[in-house]
Write a structure and sequence with these properties.
With 148 residues, the protein is α+β, with helices and mostly antiparallel strands. The chain has one domain (2-146). It has helices at residues 2-50, 53-58, 120-127, and strands at residues 74-78, 92-102, 110-119, 139-146. A four-stranded antiparallel beta sheet has the order 1-2-3-4. The longest helix is centred in the N-terminal third of the chain and has 49 residues, at 2-50. The chain starts with a helix and ends with a strand.
């Protein structure tokens, strides 16, 4: 009888530990995905900040550029960080969109740069009409660029 009780206690403890392991693995995957999305957003922000002023000044985006695919203001990225084309191809892991708008208070000399990155699977579900809440790997970065 003592062996049976001890076995049940060990089994219950092992089940609890297994749940913790599953939660830890999911948290690690979410953190990895969010880090990758943040790096992709930073990469695009730096690219936009480093662009020559006339091209940044001339390239104002439509107001809804962060909400939908806008030519010239969106791309999709695969696991290696390479741009893989338009739409959401199978190899895509993230959809990246950016906007360039006038800097409030000084629209002639400045631009607000925003970059939004979301997992491709979430974007595909959104396009298909499935409503969902914020995904773990979604990021939105913003900065300003001014004429020197």
């Amino acid at each position: 009888m003592e062996v049976l009780v001890a076995t049940l206690l060990v089994a219950a403890a092992a089940a609890g530990v297994a749940d913790l392991v599953v939660i830890a693995i999911r948290s690690i995957q979410d953190a990895r995905d969010e880090t990758a999305a943040a790096l992709l957003a930073v990469q695009k922000i730096e690219e936009l900040r480093g662009a020559e002023w006339p091209s940044v000044a001339a390239a104002l985006s439509p107001a809804d550029a962060l909400d939908q695919e806008t030519p010239g203001f969106a791309d999709v990225v695969d696991a290696s960080g390479q741009v893989v084309g338009a739409g959401v191809p199978r190899s895509a892991l993230y959809v990246r969109r950016w906007s360039v708008g006038p800097l409030p208070g000084d629209p002639a000399r400045g631009r607000v740069l925003r970059v939004y990155v979301t997992p491709a699977r979430r974007e595909a579900a959104r396009v298909a009409g499935a409503a969902s809440s914020r995904a773990h790997a979604e990021v939105l970065f913003a900065t300003a660029r001014t004429l020197r």
